[in-house]
Amino acid sequence: MIDEPDSPVREPRLKPYSPVRRDILKALGLNALALAGMMAGVAPRPGLAREPAAGGNVATAPVSDRTAEKQPFLGEHQAGVVTPRPACGMVASFDVLAQTPDELVRLFRTLTERTRFLMEGGTPPVRDPRFPPTDSGILGPVVIPDNLTVTVSVGSSLFDGRFGLGPFRPKYLERMTAFPNDALNADLCHGDLSIQLCANTADTTIHALRDIVKNLPDLLWLRWKQEGAVPVLPEVPDRPAESARNFLGFRDGSANPDANDTALMNRILWVQRGGEEPEWMAGGTYQAVRIIRNFVERWDRTPLREQERIFGRARDSGAPLDGGPGASEFDVPDFGRDPDGVHTPHDSHIRLANPRTPESETNLILRRPFNYSNGVTKSGQLDMGLLFICYQANLLNGFITVQRRLDGEPLEEYIKPVGGGYFFTLPGVRDENDFFARPLLAAAHLVPAAG
Amino acid sequence: MKKSLLSFAAATTLALGSLTLAAPSAPVLAQAAAAVSPLDLVAPVAEYKIYVTKATQQFVKDTKAFTDAVKAGDVEKAKALFAPTRVSYEQIEPIAELFSDLDAAIDSRADDHEKAEADPGFTGFHRIEYGLWEKNSTAELGPFADKLLADVEELHKRIAGLTFPPEKVVGGAAVLMEEVAATKISGEEDRYSHTDLWDFQGNFDGSRKIFDLFRPLLPKDDGEFVKKVEGNFNRVDVILAKYKEGNGFQSYEKLTDADRNVLAGAVNTLAEDLSTLRGKLGLD
Amino acid sequence: MVPVDAGAPRAVRRLRIAGLNKVIFIMASPQDNAGREKAAPPSSRLARLAVAGAVVLVIAGGAVFYLASRKTPQPAPDDAITVTITGKTCDPNELTVPAGRRTFRIVNNSDRTVEWEILDGVMVVEERENIAPGFSSTLTARLDTGTFQITCGLLSNPRGTLTVTPSADAGNAARPALTAFIGPLAEYRVYLALESGALTSATADLAAAVRDGDLARARALYVPARALYRHIEPAAQRFVDLDAAISARADYLEKREADPAFTGFHRLEYGLFAQGDLAGLTPVAERLLADVTTLEERLGALQLPPERMADGARTLLTRWAGSIASEGEERYSGTDIDSLAATLAGAGKVIGLLQPLVAKADPALATETQAKLDAAVARIDGLRGPQGYARLGDVGREDRAAIAASLQALADATGKLNASIGLE
């Protein structure tokens, strides 16, 4: 529920298509002509699928023309961090069961292999039907990529005495400790390894999780998982893409740092070589995950003005409270002109999260949240909230500092963080011979250094 | 006879060949159904029936002693007999659970019932466990003890008359591990007494028995599989041995997270690997 | 190797037992062999018995004719392989056939009633018994690749060879899913293990009583031990050597009760009930104990083909149907009804194990078989009094005929089971 570690990039995103779309088209091997044709036509809505054409049965599957979308697996950084957030996401946290360095290597090699297949898609091996099938089959006989990203991160506990990784622990990676408003449930916290799965549809993330669980039963044990989704919006011509709303009805993600700004990302997001961190971390980033329950019934019984003052934004437009008529979420609040908090209260969420001072520039984080809805609590209330995920090059300066500023905010009456953890997202897999965590394992001499 | 069995297997392989041709684009795993004659399965299935029969006889005997203690109001003795009595049942669970009415009556847990501990349908071992540990008393347990003994005797009778379905026998090795993985590793099975490690031992023994009985039928080139499965059983043995106490085990609460993780990994991997046993032996 | 029909001519059984002796010869000690060679002529007492036996044979011969006339001979299919048995040999005596279902037409041109068997070592693969002189019989067997021996007339005749070559139509592919039989076969294996284990210990008790010279106890222990053998006989009869040693009757031995090959249960029965004398029985009892122990081991390793279950039961029921109406099978003790009840229990076990499969394939046959079984059991139960089953001698001719009919009806129904579940 952290908002507003604002990007210094101010201009509205009025580009006719996102660079990501371009990447997708490239990945699909479409030429310029096709691209032009596609842009001229009705662009597919992001995320969810349409109902099938007329004549379908009630139970006919919804259709989508985005199932072939795929994100590149190889690269300096892992996919799923600056990749535009698709409709569905999940974080799964595991205990690593490997007992020996060799098993740890096998874990990362297998994870690499599975990720490569899952993000690329294809036909799983067929087996004699008297055996359990190799694939769950929930996506059909051919696994579609469906824009899947699999992002692998490691927790501080992996750097305990088991594998001799202690000396190579990321400097700021620690076991998440409770903030004052937290009510952490041990069953929903921490882990040796986290996997963030994002895709156009929830089925694709579930398929990927099941594949990983099935292929690594002796090396990974699931601790917890949380799925989420973001609402799909209509595309409005000539208007910048809007941020999705959370379950409190407010836009979440307004003024996220621009992931297309490489220089900015290298400063706030990606760990750089030659800094204070171990070399192996270059190209990775810190991941903070928080499962934040929202008390939505109570929120819905709160006057709108109070809601807006708690957030510091107008609910419907997302505009800052000091914005005039017609202001949007892309307008930037000027707290300097509101020293007494007349428009935007000092304890409002956005003002605490990002006071927009020169100092707070070092606290920028890249948010990637999803909304979750799990069922009903024992009190008969809806168990729903925010699967908060953010990335930063320095966990202390990033999430931890921002959250400390938020401690005691009025919003706390409506939210309750119950789980999550801190992880370090491994550098990308660079080529066919590389695999997850290879730089770390090489640094610890568990595998030979890459040639 | 041998030769004809081989040709039978060859015919099976042929049929599978045409089956895989139906999906030409998919990579085909070399792992086809094993060249095992169904008739080769007769002896181990029979051996398994004898194993189950002996375990059931033991179970009846132990249950009698346990329920006698309950009825005599001897809380301490009943507590001491609770876990060891259950071991035989846990060993033969793949067969015992074929009789779902008895399984529910003998071994269901409070959360299997709408009103939990207060539910009149909550009977059997865990109902008595609840009384012994939560209430530290045998009061009102008499009828449950009578019913338990009657149910166990009925189970014995039904097992004696049962022709064991081979796929249930072979599949039982994995089923036992699935049981542990799904509902026992959490310690929710014996939640009042925390005697879960006894149950584990029974489940592992039962699973390993099946594996050992059918292992000689596995293809000669399946050594890696055998080694892996045995390795995981051995891992489990090592962990369980750490918690041995007298003739039994320490409380499940004593299990460290690290050891539980080793157990969990071994159990899940055994479940995954043993799930291929039926296919390897050519059983649907 | 329990005699099929009371009326089977002596020569046939002699042949058969003599053939078995060849096997036994290998396994038996030199003394046994020497003893056989030096067998004394029958005593006058035995001669009297032989006369009585001849009278019985006349009656039994009628029964055979009766049974034979009831069976309409099945015409042999066109592709049947004809084997002609003459006094000295079989023509042909060397056969080569492709694997699969093969039908043989056996023509008996000799002057003795004969049987024709396909043997795999000591195991009977298929047999056709009681082929009367001048008659022919057909036999259909599912043959697997391999080399087999065939018995061919008299012992002095050389055994023939049957070579089964691999073939495309071996029929294995068309065989029903064998997995369906794993359960029943395993259950039967358990039954055989338990019953043969019980047989070994019951025989040990019996041997102990004989050794102790306790005639009354030995008599009392004979019946339950014999019953246990009857339970497992559908499978045990496959071992021709052991079956002969354990259960052969004197009728079929050259020197009858005086024949050194007269061993096993009937030899004990003869001593315990006919002679009322334990003299010389200790080695017989110990030999029997050794044989049933071997049998237990062999059954433990036996991989019974599924069709053997019903086949074995049917064979025994048919034999009883023939013998019960005449002199019976436990002639010294008169405990035939006890013995028959045990056979029915053993056959009932087999039928019960196959019933779930039959009920799916041919519900009417399942019902019919069960009804016939129940009827046969009911008839036997009717002969049970406070002292146990009646002695055969106390059962009237009409009752015996009715029992024979009920057994034949059950045998006929049992004979259809295999075909109904795709095992023929």
UniProtKB/TrEMBL annotation, chain A:
SUPFAM superfamilies (UniProt xref): Dimeric alpha+beta barrel
GO molecular function: peroxidase activity
Cofactor binding comment, as recorded: Binds 1 heme b (iron(II)-protoporphyrin IX) group non-covalently per subunit.
Keyword annotations: Heme, Iron, Metal-binding, Oxidoreductase, Peroxidase, Signal
Residue ranges of domain Dyp-type peroxidase C-terminal in the record: 244-429
Compartments, record wording: Cell envelope
Cofactor(s) essential for the protein: heme b
Sequence ranges assigned to domain Dyp-type peroxidase N-terminal in this UniProt record: 78-228
Top enzyme class: oxidoreductase
The keyword Membrane belongs to this UniProt entry's keyword annotation: no
Domain of life from the UniProt record: Bacteria
Pfam families linked: Dyp_perox_C, Dyp_perox_N
PROSITE patterns from the UniProt entry: DYP_PEROXIDASE
EC numbers for this chain: 1.11.1.-
Entry similarity comment: Belongs to the DyP-type peroxidase family.
Role this protein plays: Involved in the recovery of exogenous heme iron. Extracts iron from heme while preserving the protoporphyrin ring intact.
Name of the molecule in the record: Deferrochelatase
Organism encoding this protein: Pseudochelatococcus lubricantis
TrEMBL record, chain B:
Pfam families: Peptidase_M75 (PF09375)
Residue ranges of domain Imelysin-like in the record: 45-277
Subcellular location: Cell envelope
Presence of the UniProt keyword Signal in the record: yes
Signal peptide (UniProt feature, chain positions): 1-30
Top-level taxon of origin: Bacteria
Predominant location: other
Record flagged with keyword Transmembrane: no
Record's keyword terms, sorted: Signal
Family: Belongs to the EfeM/EfeO family.
Designated name of the protein: Iron uptake system component EfeO
